[in-house]
Protein backbone atom coordinates (compact mmCIF):
# COMPACT_ATOMS: atom_id res chain seq x y z
CA UNK A 1 0.00 0.00 0.00
CA UNK A 2 1.37 3.48 -0.88
CA UNK A 3 0.50 4.85 2.59
CA UNK A 4 2.70 2.39 4.47
CA UNK A 5 6.18 3.74 3.69
CA UNK A 6 5.56 7.33 4.68
CA UNK A 7 7.07 9.72 7.20
CA UNK A 8 5.38 9.35 10.64
CA UNK A 9 4.08 12.94 10.44
CA UNK A 10 2.34 12.13 7.17
CA UNK A 11 0.82 8.97 8.61
CA UNK A 12 -0.47 11.04 11.53
CA UNK A 13 -1.99 13.57 9.13
CA UNK A 14 -3.74 10.84 7.13
CA UNK A 15 -5.17 9.39 10.32
CA UNK A 16 -6.25 12.83 11.56
CA UNK A 17 -7.93 13.57 8.22
CA UNK A 18 -9.55 10.12 8.26
CA UNK A 19 -7.95 9.03 4.99
CA UNK A 20 -7.79 5.29 5.53
CA UNK A 21 -7.18 3.90 2.06
CA UNK A 22 -5.69 5.02 -1.23
CA UNK A 23 -7.72 5.63 -4.37
CA UNK A 24 -6.94 3.70 -7.54
CA UNK A 25 -5.01 6.67 -8.89
CA UNK A 26 -3.02 7.06 -5.67
CA UNK A 27 -2.10 3.37 -5.62
CA UNK A 28 -0.64 3.72 -9.10
CA UNK A 29 0.79 7.21 -8.87
CA UNK A 30 2.35 7.60 -5.42
CA UNK A 31 5.09 4.95 -5.84
CA UNK A 32 6.00 6.22 -9.31
CA UNK A 33 6.11 9.87 -8.27
CA UNK A 34 8.13 8.82 -5.24
CA UNK A 35 10.70 7.28 -7.62
CA UNK A 36 11.58 10.74 -8.92
CA UNK A 37 10.35 10.28 -12.50
CA UNK A 38 8.62 12.99 -14.49
CA UNK A 39 4.92 12.10 -14.46
CA UNK A 40 1.74 12.95 -16.32
CA UNK A 41 -1.06 11.98 -13.92
CA UNK A 42 -4.28 11.72 -15.92
CA UNK A 43 -7.53 10.93 -14.10
CA UNK A 44 -11.07 12.30 -13.58
CA UNK A 45 -12.04 14.76 -10.87
CA UNK A 46 -12.27 13.39 -7.33
CA UNK A 47 -9.77 10.63 -8.10
CA UNK A 48 -7.27 11.84 -5.51
CA UNK A 49 -4.72 13.50 -7.81
CA UNK A 50 -4.12 16.57 -5.66
CA UNK A 51 -3.90 14.58 -2.43
CA UNK A 52 -1.39 12.21 -4.04
CA UNK A 53 0.77 15.16 -5.01
CA UNK A 54 0.55 16.78 -1.59
CA UNK A 55 1.58 13.52 0.05
CA UNK A 56 4.53 13.06 -2.33
CA UNK A 57 5.66 16.67 -1.94
CA UNK A 58 5.65 16.57 1.85
CA UNK A 59 7.37 13.17 1.85
CA UNK A 60 10.06 14.48 -0.50
CA UNK A 61 10.71 17.40 1.85
CA UNK A 62 10.89 15.02 4.82
CA UNK A 63 8.20 16.97 6.70
CA UNK A 64 10.62 19.67 7.85
CA UNK A 65 11.66 23.20 6.99
CA UNK A 66 15.08 23.67 5.46
CA UNK A 67 16.96 26.69 4.11
CA UNK A 68 15.31 29.77 2.66
CA UNK A 69 14.51 28.91 -0.98
CA UNK A 70 11.48 26.83 -2.00
CA UNK A 71 12.12 23.13 -2.56
CA UNK A 72 8.70 22.58 -4.12
CA UNK A 73 6.65 24.72 -6.50
CA UNK A 74 3.00 24.12 -7.32
CA UNK A 75 1.33 25.85 -10.25
CA UNK A 76 -2.42 26.50 -10.32
CA UNK A 77 -4.74 28.45 -12.61
CA UNK A 78 -5.79 31.41 -10.48
CA UNK A 79 -6.10 32.98 -7.02
CA UNK A 80 -9.09 30.83 -6.06
CA UNK A 81 -7.24 27.62 -6.91
CA UNK A 82 -4.15 28.88 -5.07
CA UNK A 83 -6.20 29.50 -1.93
CA UNK A 84 -7.81 26.07 -2.10
CA UNK A 85 -4.52 24.26 -2.58
CA UNK A 86 -2.90 26.32 0.18
CA UNK A 87 -5.65 25.24 2.58
CA UNK A 88 -5.21 21.59 1.59
CA UNK A 89 -1.47 21.75 2.18
CA UNK A 90 -2.00 23.34 5.60
CA UNK A 91 -4.26 20.45 6.60
CA UNK A 92 -1.35 18.07 6.05
CA UNK A 93 1.47 20.29 7.38
CA UNK A 94 -0.39 21.45 10.51
CA UNK A 95 1.98 19.74 12.95
CA UNK A 96 5.18 20.19 10.95
CA UNK A 97 7.34 23.29 10.52
CA UNK A 98 7.03 23.27 6.73
CA UNK A 99 6.42 26.77 5.37
CA UNK A 100 3.75 26.92 2.64
CA UNK A 101 3.45 30.22 0.76
CA UNK A 102 0.78 31.34 -1.70
CA UNK A 103 1.40 33.94 -4.42
CA UNK A 104 -0.92 35.21 -7.14
CA UNK A 105 -1.17 38.11 -9.60
CA UNK A 106 -3.49 40.26 -7.45
CA UNK A 107 -0.91 40.38 -4.61
CA UNK A 108 1.74 43.06 -5.19
CA UNK A 109 4.98 41.51 -6.36
CA UNK A 110 7.11 43.47 -3.85
CA UNK A 111 5.05 42.05 -0.97
CA UNK A 112 5.56 38.55 -2.32
CA UNK A 113 9.29 39.05 -2.75
CA UNK A 114 9.74 40.33 0.81
CA UNK A 115 7.68 37.49 2.29
CA UNK A 116 9.42 34.81 0.21
CA UNK A 117 12.78 36.27 1.26
CA UNK A 118 11.97 35.33 4.86
CA UNK A 119 12.13 31.65 3.86
CA UNK A 120 9.62 29.17 2.44
CA UNK A 121 9.56 25.46 1.57
CA UNK A 122 6.54 25.17 -0.74
CA UNK A 123 5.49 27.89 -3.17
CA UNK A 124 2.01 27.92 -4.74
CA UNK A 125 1.63 30.30 -7.65
CA UNK A 126 0.01 30.97 -11.02
CA UNK A 127 2.19 30.66 -14.17
CA UNK A 128 2.26 34.40 -14.90
CA UNK A 129 2.96 35.29 -11.28
CA UNK A 130 5.81 32.79 -11.06
CA UNK A 131 7.32 34.11 -14.28
CA UNK A 132 7.20 37.63 -12.85
CA UNK A 133 8.91 36.47 -9.65
CA UNK A 134 11.65 34.86 -11.74
CA UNK A 135 12.15 37.95 -13.93
CA UNK A 136 12.47 40.22 -10.87
CA UNK A 137 14.74 37.83 -8.96
CA UNK A 138 12.00 37.38 -6.39
CA UNK A 139 12.52 33.67 -5.87
CA UNK A 140 15.53 31.35 -5.89
CA UNK A 141 15.31 27.93 -7.51
CA UNK A 142 18.67 26.71 -6.25
CA UNK A 143 17.08 24.15 -3.90
CA UNK A 144 14.12 23.11 -6.05
CA UNK A 145 13.31 19.39 -5.92
CA UNK A 146 9.79 19.07 -7.36
CA UNK A 147 7.60 21.19 -9.61
CA UNK A 148 3.99 20.26 -10.23
CA UNK A 149 0.95 21.66 -11.98
CA UNK A 150 -2.42 20.94 -10.39
CA UNK A 151 -5.52 20.63 -12.62
CA UNK A 152 -3.31 21.45 -15.60
CA UNK A 153 -6.13 21.40 -18.15
CA UNK A 154 -6.10 25.21 -18.03
CA UNK A 155 -2.72 25.19 -19.77
CA UNK A 156 -4.42 24.88 -23.14
CA UNK A 157 -4.51 28.69 -22.94
CA UNK A 158 -1.55 29.89 -24.96
CA UNK A 159 -0.41 32.64 -22.59
CA UNK A 160 -0.40 30.29 -19.61
CA UNK A 161 1.58 27.53 -21.28
CA UNK A 162 4.06 30.08 -22.65
CA UNK A 163 4.65 31.47 -19.15
CA UNK A 164 5.25 27.94 -17.87
CA UNK A 165 7.67 26.86 -20.61
CA UNK A 166 9.59 30.14 -20.33
CA UNK A 167 9.97 29.69 -16.58
CA UNK A 168 11.09 26.07 -16.98
CA UNK A 169 14.08 27.25 -19.03
CA UNK A 170 15.56 28.71 -15.84
CA UNK A 171 15.24 25.44 -13.91
CA UNK A 172 18.22 23.15 -14.41
CA UNK A 173 17.15 20.02 -12.61
CA UNK A 174 14.06 18.90 -10.70
CA UNK A 175 11.15 16.47 -10.93
CA UNK A 176 8.04 17.58 -12.85
CA UNK A 177 4.51 16.28 -12.31
CA UNK A 178 1.55 17.38 -14.43
CA UNK A 179 -1.94 16.50 -13.12
CA UNK A 180 -4.91 16.77 -15.48
CA UNK A 181 -8.16 15.15 -16.56
CA UNK A 182 -7.02 14.70 -20.17
CA UNK A 183 -3.65 14.55 -21.89
CA UNK A 184 -4.51 16.96 -24.69
CA UNK A 185 -2.00 17.71 -27.49
CA UNK A 186 -0.77 20.95 -25.87
CA UNK A 187 0.06 19.18 -22.63
CA UNK A 188 1.66 16.32 -24.54
CA UNK A 189 3.96 18.80 -26.28
CA UNK A 190 5.50 19.66 -22.89
CA UNK A 191 7.63 16.57 -23.52
CA UNK A 192 9.61 18.79 -25.89
CA UNK A 193 10.35 21.24 -23.08
CA UNK A 194 10.75 19.80 -19.59
CA UNK A 195 8.68 16.59 -19.45
CA UNK A 196 11.47 14.50 -20.96
CA UNK A 197 11.41 10.74 -20.37
CA UNK A 198 8.04 11.16 -18.67
CA UNK A 199 5.68 8.38 -17.61
CA UNK A 200 1.93 8.63 -18.17
CA UNK A 201 -0.30 7.30 -15.38
CA UNK A 202 -3.84 7.18 -16.65
CA UNK A 203 -6.95 6.00 -14.77
UniProtKB/TrEMBL annotation:
The keyword ATP-binding applies. InterPro entries: DEAD/DEAH_box_helicase_dom (IPR011545), Helicase_ATP-bd (IPR014001), P-loop_NTPase (IPR027417). It comes from the Bacteria. Coiled coil: none annotated. Residues 30-186 form the Helicase ATP-binding domain. Keywords: ATP-binding, Helicase, Hydrolase, Nucleotide-binding. One of its GO terms (molecular function) is nucleic acid binding. PROSITE patterns: HELICASE_ATP_BIND_1. The keyword ATP-binding applies. This is RAD3-like DEAD/DEAH box helicase. It comes from Maribacter vaceletii. The lineage of its organism: Bacteria, Pseudomonadati, Bacteroidota, Flavobacteriia, Flavobacteriales.
